[in-house]
Specification:
A: 19 helices, 16 strands, B: mainly alpha, 59% helix
Chain lengths: 568, 196
């Protein structure tokens, strides 16, 4: 039983001060209530704003995570040549290191021997964040993580990786620290590769990685065997100007650039390419009507004296007789070529060279140098230029010129971008169709009967011309160094590709059967092996029963009575 | 008056039932949506993994490495013109009745005495065409000692699971002879030793 005791109501009612207190309390309560209400309202409003304004985090990530920061580069068949991947990077914040710094430096030096212990210690005693290793393998990340040092940080950072490492290094180029291309197609395509709209799609080059690999392998092997200073090689599509393979050795590894890389000898070095120019001079003579008959003979009985300059034939190749046009090329006679050029004249020869672009930089996306074009075209200059001396061009110049020589006479610029077969550049006509057909016969004859015999690949109908020039040294020629070139086209009955191999200063190596340093012994076998390896990959079916018709020209080559002399 | 009171109660009950039901639906949708997001992020992750693995595979199987195996180790040479068959000669290729000699492709199982299936005969044509592959592998059936000729492709006739396992396990046998694999393993071991 509870008893409620309450003061009588009238006592409160009568107290005026008490009533005032109640009133203020009520006002305060009201204010507090309003404050709480306002607070809740603020929270609700904020929640509403958040609910309306933000998007789910995943929808943004999903779309962008698959688009690389820089587009991939692939070859013509989609084989990746350059990719951007998330690689592990390891960095150190010296301020957060808690272990003994000298000991940590020792451990780092043991795991990553790129820097010494002293260098690591110096960096650790510094203040700023520094990278220990970029593009680290997961294995190394595990090992470093096992050190248990909180000052070491791991992050996934986008890195450019070249899966084929040295393959096509000069074509691809490499990136600087800011992620922009320094050389090669990385530089040429920089804007396109970084364009957010296009970087989802990979950029396709005209290169075929398989052919590129074979070219680098064959050239590199020969370069090592013959201790050459350098080598260069190109495979060019004669109908589109696409570069199927291009290499310059020694090369570099774009994955780890040390110092400044070697230059691209295909576009950035000029050479006097020697006898490989003879077909160009003869094509000019046939095309301009200077020579109308293949059987016309030129005196090559003795060296040609022009002023105080004497033109010899290469020792071993002298014929000491009058030579007709096929024989001039087959025996690679400087004297006969000089006589033809003399009759041709400076205007027609330079006209031909200009049409082939020998007076300007080679036409390609990559950085290139100007050829050495003679200042004055005197009589001697015309004669020597006809057999490739006194004028220096890049190997790419010669390859595009040979493409025009065999493809029916249309010159097209070389390109490293894949060409749509429906939109082949029109090009420009440099020689007549008939001249081109004649040149195909003549070039094939050189491989069948002349200096290019070691360049033949069974079944692939190779045609080409060797060229051996003395290397230019300071103030003259170095008699002991050759630049050996073989420029070839195949299959010559329906030409599709031009292959050029060049070796700078090869040495003879009797151990592997190379007795001389001329192109026939050094560069031609490279082309032969390359075509045997890659001809079928390029869609040329070998056929021993097919060949170009040589019935017109074969009788013109004099077969001596004695045992046939080896023209190599 | 009573009706008015019940009307209020009715509204209240309706709110009490429909409100949670609506909430149930929205929360279910939200759960589905988050699961979808999880799947999507898993797909993205898988794509990234695929890309990473592809890159690793390409890097490990780059042209230099293939050249090392094909050229330096296996000493393969380019195929000769007579090893290529023109399209016309392929069409007129006359296969003997009852299958051809495909000793190098037979799987020695001995477990299942079932007659060879004639379908195997068709494998001859790809083998001939294969010569144009990037690393041309010269056919070497003659050089290899005849292996025990067993039933072919018996795996299909067994239970599916067992057949698949067997096929996987015997893939190596089909591609390379035992001696070659032994050579490869020895080579790999010596490479490992030199790396250390």
């Amino acid at each position: 039983m509870t008893v409620l005791v309450a003061p009588p109501a009238h006592t409160r009612r009568t107290s005026g001060t008490r009533q005032a207190l109640v009133a203020t309390a009520q006002v305060r309560l009201m204010v507090l209530l309003l404050l709480f209400g306002a607070g809740v309202l603020v929270v609700i409003l904020r929640l509403a704003v958040l609910a309306w304004s933000t998007e789910p985090a995943t929808s943004v990530d999903g779309a962008t995570a698959l688009v690389p920061l820089r587009a991939d580069i692939t070859d013509r068949n989609g084989v990746p040549l350059a990719r951007t991947i998330d690689a592990w990077s390891i960095g150190v914040r010296p301020g957060r290191v808690i272990n003994d710094k000298a000991q940590l430096a020792g451990q780092l030096a043991a795991l990553i021997p790129e820097r010494s212990q002293a260098q690591y210690l110096a960096a650790l005693n510094g203040k700023g964040f520094f990278y220990v290793k970029k593009r680290a393998t997961p294995d190394l990340v595990n090992q470093i993580n096992a050190l248990g040092e909180p000052g070491i940080e791991f992050a996934r950072e986008p890195e450019r990786l070249y899966p084929q490492s040295e393959l096509g290094a000069h074509v691809l180029g490499y990136l600087d620290d800011q992620g922009h291309g320094v050389t090669g197609m990385e530089k040429v395509l920089d804007a396109r590769l970084l364009d957010p709209a296009k970087r989802g799609q990979s950029a396709m080059l005209s290169i075929d990685a398989r052919v590129q690999g074979a070219l680098e392998n064959e050239l590199g092997k020969t370069m090592n065997d013959l201790q050459a200073r350098g080598a260069a090689g190109i495979v060019l599509d004669v109908h589109t100007g696409e570069v199927i393979a291009m290499t310059s050795l020694p090369s570099f590894n774009p994955n780890s650039i040390k110092g400044s890389p070697t230059r691209n000898n295909v576009t950035q070095s000029v050479y006097e390419l020697g006898s490989t120019f003879k077909p160009l001079a003869i094509a000019a003579a046939i095309d301009s009507g200077t020579i109308t008959s293949m059987s016309r003979r030129f005196d090559a009985t003795q060296p040609l004296q022009v002023g105080r300059f004497k033109i010899h034939d290469d020792p071993g190749d002298e014929q000491f007789r009058w030579l007709n046009i096929p024989e001039t090329l087959v025996y690679s006679s400087n004297i006969a070529t000089a006589r033809i050029a003399d009759e041709l004249g400076a205007d027609k020869l330079t006209g031909m060279f200009r049409r082939l672009g020998f007076d300007q930089k080679p036409s390609i996306e990559l950085g290139a140098v100007n050829p050495l074009w003679p200042r004055a075209w005197g009589r001697i200059t015309v004669m020597t230029a006809a057999y490739g001396h006194g004028i220096a061009v890049t190997p790419l110049h010669l390859a595009t010129a040979y493409a025009a020589l065999v493809n029916g006479g249309i010159w097209r610029p070389a390109t490293l971008s894949k060409v749509d077969p429906a939109h082949v550049p029109a090009g420009r006509r440099v020689i007549q169709e008939a001249t081109s057909a004649r040149m195909r016969q003549l070039l094939r004859l050189i491989v069948l009967k002349g200096t290019g015999r070691k360049g033949d690949a069974l079944g692939y109908r190779v045609a080409g011309k060797t060229g051996t020039a003395e290397a230019a040294a300071e103030g003259g020629y170095d008699k002991h160094r050759n630049v050996s070139t073989f420029a070839a086209a195949f299959p010559i009955d329906a030409p599709r590709y031009v292959v050029l191999a060049m070796l700078d200063s090869p040495k003879s190596n009797p151990a592997i059967g190379v007795y001389r340093t001329t192109a026939a012994w050094t560069a031609a076998p490279v082309v032969s092996r390359l075509i045997s390896r890659t001809g079928s990959l390029l869609g040329v079916a070998p056929d021993s029963h097919r060949d170009i018709d040589e019935s017109e020209l074969l009788p013109l080559i004099w077969q001596g009575t004695g045992p046939e002399k080896d023209p190599e | 008056m009573a009706a008015y009171g019940f009307k209020g109660l009715g509204w209240f009950i309706m709110g009490a039932v429909v409100g949670p039901a609506c909430y149930l639906v929205t929360s279910h949708v939200a759960a589905e949506r988050s699961r979808l997001a999880a799947v999507e992020s898993a797909i993205v992750k898988a794509h990234q993994d695929i890309r990473g693995l592809e890159t690793e595979f390409d890097t490990r199987a780059n042209m230099v490495q293939l050249q090392r195996w094909n050229g330096d180790f296996l000493a393969l040479t380019a195929p000769r013109p007579e090893q290529f068959a023109a399209e016309t000669s392929l069409a007129s290729l006359n296969l003997p009745v009852g299958g051809t000699e495909t000793a190098q492709l037979l799987v020695p199982s001995g477990a299942n005495p079932i007659a060879p299936q004639p379908a195997v005969a068709t494998t001859v044509v790809p083998a001939a065409v294969q010569v144009s592959a990037p690393a041309p592998v010269p056919a070497e059936p003659a050089a290899r000692p005849a292996r025990p000729v067993g039933p072919v492709a018996t795996a299909q006739n067994n239970t599916v699971a067992r057949g698949r396992n067997q096929a996987m396990a015997m893939l190596d046998d089909k591609l390379l002879s035992r001696t070659t694999i032994a050579d490869l393993q020895e080579r790999a071991r010596s490479e490992l030793m030199t790396l250390r």
